[in-house]
């Protein structure tokens, strides 16, 4: 049995006691979260989110690339979110390599250099600020009054604001 | 008080009882989930995931674009995941508009046409298959033995596999 099959058994249990079938499409709290994909970072637990509350956008690093700008534009323009919460975290995998090394390693193995930047970084707080600035500079996201960035500490469970 | 401030108060409560400070960086279940950002789709609840279990990648639609391929390459190559679970869902916002209309509307308002495709779709199952195929066709993701796609039913809580 694969891990996927094991998780599908969990999904059957979730459906068996499901009672949230009438929630509306727009997020109740009008918030979009952009966070790293890291397994230890659970936005629902940390922020106390429940089904229906917020859009959750995640990728390697919690960085803001074209796809996050697309998702945020859709989130605000079509589904009425107005606040953005960015979350990076300590002990992030993105701190352990450089873009050049990662892409050159793939090129050596596969024979093709990836067309994307890996988005690795060396300074957590600086990359949170970089992500905030990418949102502030984007012409397609209409509401930028509340774009706040944070570092989640995987060692302590604490969320620290980056200013 | 903004909603962000309200969620930060939740984060303080999460940290106060935090007991997961020793979890390793690589996901324990070696799984990466790619799901829609929709507020009603909670991958932790549905799949029974806990902190430390799996990478969770999310965007508008749960579609696979360059940034998801980047995240999956990092997930597999640097952090050892080997199974991929894709989740779209019923009543998705991406079913309610067309790329052309969304991008033309922004162009009329802002004066600039977005450089990205909005990735709207008209057929849920077909778009799940499209996302699976984009992963299967990617040269930088090494492990493709278990790439399975699903539709989550927001009305019933059920997860249905797309074949």
Automatic annotation (TrEMBL), chains A, B:
Instruction: List the SUPFAM superfamilies.
Output: beta-carbonic anhydrase, cab
Q: Name one Pfam family in it.
A: Pro_CA
User: What cofactor(s) does the depicted protein rely on?
Assistant: Zn(2+)
Keywords, sorted A to Z: Metal-binding, Zinc
Q: Is Metal-binding there in the keyword field? A: yes
Tell me which family the UniProt entry assigns to this protein.
Answer: Belongs to the beta-class carbonic anhydrase family.
Q: What is this protein called?
A: carbonic anhydrase
According to the entry, what is the taxonomic lineage of the organism?
A: Bacteria, Bacillati, Actinomycetota, Actinomycetes, Micromonosporales
């Amino acid at each position: 049995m694969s891990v996927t099959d094991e998780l599908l058994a969990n999904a059957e249990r979730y459906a068996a006691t499901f009672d949230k079938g009438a929630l509306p499409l727009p997020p109740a709290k009008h918030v979009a979260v952009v966070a790293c994909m890291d397994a230890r970072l659970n936005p629902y637990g940390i922020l106390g989110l429940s089904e229906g509350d917020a859009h959750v956008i995640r990728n390697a690093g919690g960085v803001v690339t074209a796809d996050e700008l697309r998702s945020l534009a859709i989130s605000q323009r079509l589904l009425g979110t107005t606040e953005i919460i960015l979350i990076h975290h300590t002990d992030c995998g993105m701190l352990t390599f450089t873009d050049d090394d990662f892409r050159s390693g793939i090129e050596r193995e596969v024979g093709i250099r990836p067309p994307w930047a890996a988005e690795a970084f060396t300074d957590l707080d600086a990359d949170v600020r970089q992500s905030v600035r990418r949102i502030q500079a984007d012409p397609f996201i209409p509401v930028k009054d509340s774009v706040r960035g944070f570092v989640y500490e995987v060692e302590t469970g604490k969320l620290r604001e980056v200013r």
